[in-house]
């Protein structure tokens, strides 16, 4: 069995060295900036479109006036590739980006589009949640309110840059009611107010009222009210005692007008002894 001897075993072939290892030159790496022509050049066109729509809405909101789409398009400064080795160039009027953005903005719920504006060119304006841009419009909106829920100032500021100044001025005149942040003093909610219902309070009565010190402990306040013969609002409700006696079951009255009989079983109880043989 000479084939089991180590001397007869075949050795593994050694790898052949490449030309680059023999010459000492490194293999050139591909340029990461080179475009891959098998894939679309812009794979995030959808995200870029929505970003441009957001910028367009912010631009309309800041200007707070009707504008043409050409003004909005110039503000966006959209660039398109100029081909291999060429610099990007401005997107043309009436091109793909132009048509796509006009379609989106005309149907957007935050844009007031008037096709007859600017002599048929079409006008675009930011549409806030409340169509209020002056103090008189704010008072009209508050008068049309059908509930007692206040209007958020943050919603009024959306599309109305002078909302805070107008609210402060109306508050000084007593034409609206305002709740403010305790730390910053910024208005938070507004309601309608009727100045004719306001009455001046005697300064002496106000000083007497404010001089009354309230107890720090709520339990002391309850005991003082009870001592004065007043019922505190936070007093527990009196529960009615439950009747633990078992309820008597009503007996059913017997049915009248019906005769009970077993006439259908007369043959069973009949005596047949006389018929036995």
Automatic annotation (TrEMBL):
Keywords: DNA-binding, Initiation factor, Nucleus, Protein biosynthesis, Transcription, Transcription regulation
Recorded GO CC terms: transcription factor TFIIE complex
Sequence ranges of Basic residues compositional bias: 247-258
UniProt-annotated location(s): Nucleus
MF annotations from Gene Ontology: DNA binding; TFIIH-class transcription factor complex binding; translation initiation factor activity
Stretches with biased composition (Polar residues): 39-48
Comp. bias intervals (Low complexity): 1-21
Superkingdom, taxonomy of origin: Eukaryota
Keyword Transmembrane part of the UniProt annotation: no
Renumbered residue ranges of the record's region Disordered: 1-48, 229-277
Matches recorded under Pfam families: TFA2_E-tether, TFA2_Winged_2, TFIIE_beta
GO biological process, one term: transcription initiation at RNA polymerase II promoter
Main location: nucleus
Limits of the TFIIE beta domain: 37-133
Family, similarity comment: Belongs to the TFIIE beta subunit family.
Quaternary structure, from the entry: Tetramer of two alpha and two beta chains.
Protein task: Recruits TFIIH to the initiation complex and stimulates the RNA polymerase II C-terminal domain kinase and DNA-dependent ATPase activities of TFIIH. Both TFIIH and TFIIE are required for promoter clearance by RNA polymerase.
Protein's name according to its UniProt entry: Transcription initiation factor IIE subunit beta
Source species of the chain: Lasiodiplodia theobromae
């Amino acid at each position: 069995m000479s084939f089991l001897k180590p001397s007869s075993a075949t050795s593994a072939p050694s790898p052949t060295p490449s030309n680059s290892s023999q010459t000492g030159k490194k293999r050139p790496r591909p340029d990461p900036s080179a475009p891959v022509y098998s894939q679309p050049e812009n794979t995030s066109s959808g995200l870029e479109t929505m970003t441009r729509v957001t910028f367009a809405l912010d631009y309309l909101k800041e200007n707070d006036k009707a504008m043409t789409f050409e003004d909005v398009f110039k503000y966006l400064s959209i660039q398109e590739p100029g081909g291999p080795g060429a610099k990007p160039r401005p997107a043309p009027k009436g091109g793909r980006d132009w048509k796509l953005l006009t379609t989106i903005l005309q149907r957007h719920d935050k844009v007031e589009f008037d096709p007859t504006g600017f002599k048929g060119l079409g006008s675009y304006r930011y549409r806030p949640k409340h169509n209020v841009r002056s103090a008189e419009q704010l008072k009209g909106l508050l008068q049309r309110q059908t509930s007692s829920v206040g209007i958020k100032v943050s919603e009024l500021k959306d599309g109305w840059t002078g909302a805070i100044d107008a609210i402060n001025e109306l508050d000084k005149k007593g034409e609206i009611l305002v709740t403010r942040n305790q730390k910053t003093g910024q208005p938070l909610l507004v309601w309608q107010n009727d100045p004719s219902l306001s009455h001046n309070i005697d300064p002496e009565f106000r000083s007497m009222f404010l001089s009354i010190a309230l107890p720090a402990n709520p339990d002391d306040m309850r005991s003082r009210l009870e001592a004065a013969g007043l019922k505190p609002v936070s007093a527990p409700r009196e529960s009615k005692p439950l009747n633990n006696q078992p309820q008597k079951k009503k007996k059913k009255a017997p049915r009248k007008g019906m005769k009970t009989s077993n006439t259908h079983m007369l043959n069973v109880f009949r005596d047949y002894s006389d018929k036995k043989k």
